[in-house]
Design goal:
Blueprint: H1 6-47, E1 57-60, E2 85-89, E3 94-98, E4 113-114, E5 127-131, E6 153-158, E7 161-174, E8 178-181, E9 189-195, E10 202-215
Parallel strand pairs: 5-9
Antiparallel strand pairs: 1-8, 2-3, 2-6, 4-5, 6-7, 7-10, 9-10
């Protein structure tokens, strides 16, 4: 077998380096393209509204996919607080009670959590922001949220009123410790936030607009 010359070795090494650069640059360009498409889709969504969107709000404590779940106890925990609201999404067979802002049970490590700042559903033009785990754990209440799309319905029961929402926009954001909130100006909205399926680096935000409300006695 003939030995490779020094020039051939350098040429092969250079080829491998160029291939590596090409692979990494292709992924970089793909990420940039996806980000650009996301911005274009967001702008198209807001262009359908009569007014400009609000400046982005920021909510704290987004859900963390790998947050440890509490250890199981021999005796069930006695909870003396009542739910302040109930979230129902029949399309994914979800119905879950929610504790009030300020409650020690209002956390993704225990339940579906109201994020702060957030408005309760009865505030006109407000934004009710909920977060929960995805994944496969027993606390992964938003595990099937990825199955929802534009047009899907969600319901919130609060103070004997049933609020009906329809998802109108879905976007992703990288995990940075906060979430920028984009929603149509003047609309009363519900936002659902969870980790993106099969992507540990981002979270998905589902924007739903209030379609109607009606009295409801049995929450």
């Amino acid at each position: 077998m003939n030995k490779l010359t020094r020039g051939q070795i350098i040429a092969i090494g250079t080829l491998f380096i160029l291939c590596g650069i090409l692979i990494f640059s292709s992924q970089y360009l793909l990420d940039k393209k996806n980000s650009l498409f996301e911005l274009i889709n967001m702008q198209l969504y807001f262009n359908q509204m009569d007014n400009e969107p609000d400046a982005p709000e920021v909510v704290q404590e987004p859900p963390v996919e790998n947050e440890p779940e509490p250890e199981e106890k021999n005796e069930p925990e006695v909870i003396t607080e009542s739910y302040v609201a109930v979230l129902e999404i029949p399309e994914i067979d979800l119905k879950k009670g929610i504790y009030a802002l300020g409650s020690r049970y209002n956390t993704v490590s225990r339940n579906v959590s109201i994020l702060s700042p957030s408005d309760y559903p009865d505030r006109e033009g407000g934004n009710f922001v909920l977060a929960a785990h995805s994944g496969n754990g027993y606390l992964s209440f938003f595990r099937n949220l990825y199955k929802l799309g534009v047009g899907s319905n969600a319901y919130v029961y609060y103070n004997n009123i049933k609020y009906t929402y329809k998802i109108t926009y879905i976007y992703k954001q990288q995990k940075t410790g906060t979430i920028n909130v984009y929603r149509p100006y003047g609309k009363t909205t519900l936002m659902l936030i969870t980790c993106t399926k099969d992507d540990e680096s981002s979270q998905t935000v589902y924007v739903a607009e209030l379609m109607g409300k009606e009295p409801y006695e049995n929450m």
